[in-house]
Specification:
31% of the residues lie in helices and 32% in strands. By secondary structure, it is an alpha+beta fold. The strands form two sheets. Strands 3, 4, 5 and 6 form a four-stranded mixed β-sheet that branches. A two-stranded antiparallel ribbon has the order 1-2. Strand 1 (5-7) and strand 2 form a beta hairpin. The protein is elongated, with a radius of gyration of 16 Å.
């Protein structure tokens, strides 16, 4: 269901939406400034995104071999939200495209929380 088919001369390759979501979550989590990929506050999200999230922090919408990624994040206090968001968008798009060959048309981000540093200076 919803799996893109990548055809070649030998056969077909199907990549599940769950695999794409895992790649997106890992790529987003590696970006400096991202505290966590989460949907803990998804009750505050309305409309189309609420349907896409379903308590999963990463939603994948496939239209053939083209994907749209919806991702919810908590960022660390003091970071530039636009800069970190752009870095996440680029990282997620690059990771999915290089690992699967599936084109990513959009990476939509909801920043829904800010994480603060602990007293020891570690970011959580």
């Amino acid at each position: 269901m919803g799996e893109p088919n990548l055809k070649d001369t030998i056969g077909n390759l199907k990549v599940s939406e769950e695999v794409l979501a895992t790649i997106a979550k890992m790529a987003a989590g590696e970006v400096k400034g991202v505290a966590q990929v989460t949907c803990e506050n998804s009750a505050n999200i309305k409309g189309l995104w609420a349907k896409a999230i379903h308590r999963n922090p990463v939603g994948i919408e496939l239209n053939g071999d083209i994907a749209t990624v919806n991702i919810c994040l908590d960022l660390y206090q003091g970071v530039s939200i636009p800069d970190v968001s752009l870095a996440v968008q680029n990282s997620v798009k690059s990771a999915i495209q290089s690992m699967t060959g599936i084109t990513v048309s959009k990476v939509n981000i909801v920043v829904q929380g800010i994480a603060f540093e602990s007293e020891s200076g570690e970011e959580h």
